[in-house]
Specification:
By secondary structure, the protein is mostly beta strands. Strands 3, 4, 6, 7 and 8 form a five-stranded antiparallel sheet that branches. Strands 11, 12, 14, 15 and 16 form a five-stranded antiparallel sheet that branches. It has a five-stranded mixed sheet with strand order 17-44-43-42-41, with no helix packed on it.
């Protein structure tokens, strides 16, 4: 019996030993760090800037990483080394105390508790002597009235150690680091800077620079002109008119009035006022005696002219009355009606010599809007209207127009397909949501057209480069056209168009955010009627725009 118990115990112990021994874990195989080969970004006679990366730490954490170098092909950390932190990831830094004109081999390394791993070696050669660096200058971009984005690129360090790179600028050519300057720190390659504190409407010269141990070098010189801050607010308009008012100018006098007034429940306001540029004073003139309906004004010589359109009389006929105003006599005289049978909201109007031109505009007769393309000429000497070549572009409303020499110009505007509800009339129209389809070139437009008076011919010119808009201000001085501002989005940019080159240049911005209500030329510049709010009772503001100079 005892023998049997002993046997059982022995078997149990042996079985347990076998079982225990079978659960023993195998040792985990260690893996070394995985390293990327180094790369060089800058090299001088005595130093080099390198980049390295620990791609994977392996089985143990990396406690130190960096570069090692030697004149031998497989450098070790026992030769020369420079550490840059620990763990995985990228790193960069400058190794120093190199000899000029010498070949070196560089490796990245990573150390952990089990030892040190190395990458493949690359060879670098230090220059024997240092020369000044080579730098290019970036073309100035994103120009405002007070800032510009500039920069450059260090193309070749020349073997010297770079102490500083950046951009210098001045209002005189050939700026140096003694002029205004902005630093981009050290290093080679490209750099970009925002230059601030500039003056509006000034021409500046700039170039990139590099300061190295070998001296100062400059990139090619660039020039640019900051935008003007356009506009001087003058005496506010003292009358009632706000929406659909007319304005025209004769030399240094601006005439404003007629239209509808929110203060009067959107009823017609017949008052006409003149503003004198020299005195900055407003004077009330003779009230308009005709039928008021969305008037449009322009001037020929020393007379002003007003077309009232956009509505219908009691018999359902389109209102197309045409009136002359003589400032010398302070007198209105009715002229021949525009013979068109359609109504037109916000047409275009301008004059060339003794001829006046009116056309386009929105015909609101019905629930679907119709945009007119007809174009008419009025002869001041004969008081006769003649239909000219129809406008070939998209019919529109609220476009700008001006004349240069014997040509007229029309651009921007709106051709929205929103429904117009004539039954909702309570002094101002009601616009209903648009249907699913809109014109291919709309609803807001940016195209620009030329009308040749002698040839009775239209030609499309370079599109207005600003955003598509309505009620932009347009005027001309000499052989240049000026266009800007507008409604809906409170646009405040102003552009110059060159008639000879058919090119646009951005000149500046309006100093405040205002809603354009029309404008034109006055004296040697332009003017704009504006309001801080389209539908409130704010007074109309008058702004003038002298052309920008470098003074």
């Amino acid at each position: 019996m005892k023998k049997s118990l002993f046997s059982i115990i022995s078997v149990f112990l042996i079985s347990g030993l076998v079982t225990f021994t079978g659960c023993k874990k195998e040792p985990i195989e260690s893996t070394p760090p995985l390293l990327a080969d180094p790369s060089v970004t800058e090299i001088s006679v005595n130093s080099a800037v390198l980049k390295g990366m620990v791609l994977d730490e392996g089985s143990l954490a990396v406690t130190e990483r960096g570069f090692c170098w030697s004149t031998e092909q497989e450098p070790l950390i026992s030769d020369s080394k420079l550490a840059f932190g620990k763990g995985a990831g990228s790193y960069s830094g400058r190794i120093t105390r190199l000899l000029p004109g010498t070949e070196y081999y560089v490796r990245t390394y990573a150390s952990n508790l089990e030892g040190t791993s190395y990458s493949n070696a690359i060879m670098i050669t230090t220059p024997a002597t240092a020369t000044t660096a080579t730098v290019s200058t970036r073309v100035p971009e994103y120009i405002t009235s007070v800032t510009v984005v500039a920069g450059g690129e260090v193309l070749n360090t020349g073997g010297g150690e770079l102490a500083e790179r950046g951009v210098c600028w001045s209002v005189v050519p050939s700026p140096t680091i003694e002029s205004s300057r902005e630093s981009a720190g050290t290093g080679s390659g490209r750099f970009t800077l925002l230059l601030t504190g500039l003056q509006p409407a000034r021409t500046y010269y700039l170039r990139a620079y590099v300061i190295s141990s070998a001296g100062i070098s400059y990139g090619p010189e660039m020039s640019f002109k900051t935008l003007a801050i356009y506009g001087f607010k003058k005496a506010d308009f003292p009358g009632e008119s706000l929406n659909h008012s007319i304005n025209f100018s004769i030399e240094n006098i601006v005439y404003v009035g007629l239209g509808v007034s929110p203060a009067l429940g959107f009823l017609p306001a017949r008052d006409l006022w003149r503003w004198d540029e020299e005195t900055n004073l407003w004077t009330r003139l003779a009230d308009f005696p005709g039928t008021l309906s969305n008037p449009k004004g322009f001037s020929i010589g020393r007379r002003g002219y007003v077309l009232t359109s956009g509505g219908y009389d009691n018999e359902g006929n389109a209102v197309n009355e045409f009136w002359e105003f003589d400032p010398a006599l302070n007198k209105w005289t009715r002229k021949s009606n525009l013979p068109s049978a359609v109504s037109r909201l916000s047409p275009v109007a301008f004059s060339i010599g003794s001829k006046g031109y009116i056309g386009l505009g929105l015909n609101p007769g019905g629930y679907l809007p119709v945009y007119n393309n007809d174009f008419w000429e009025w002869d001041q000497a004969t008081d006769r209207w003649t239909r000219k070549s129809d406008f070939p572009g998209q019919g529109r409303t609220e476009a700008f127009a001006f004349a240069l020499g014997t040509n007229g110009y029309i651009g921007t505007g709106n051709c929205s397909q929103a429904f117009f509800d004539p039954d909702s009339w309570d002094g101002d129209p009601m616009w209903l949501p648009p249907p699913s389809s809109t014109p291919a070139e709309g609803p807001d437009l940016a195209d620009f057209w030329e009308y040749e008076q002698a040839a009775d011919r239209w030609t499309r010119k370079s599109d207005f480069p600003g955003s598509a808009r309505v009620n932009a201000v347009g005027f001309s001085i000499s052989n240049k056209g000026y266009v800007g501002a507008g409604t809906y989005s409170f646009e405040n940019d102003f552009w110059e168009w060159d008639q000879i080159s058919d090119s646009w240049t951005k000149l500046g911005t309006v100093g405040e955010s205002v809603l354009s209500l029309g404008g034109g030329s006055v004296g040697s510049g332009g003017y704009m009627l504006a309001s801080p709010d389209a539908w409130s009772l704010h007074p109309i503001e008058l702004w003038t725009f002298p052309l920008p100079t470098d003074d």
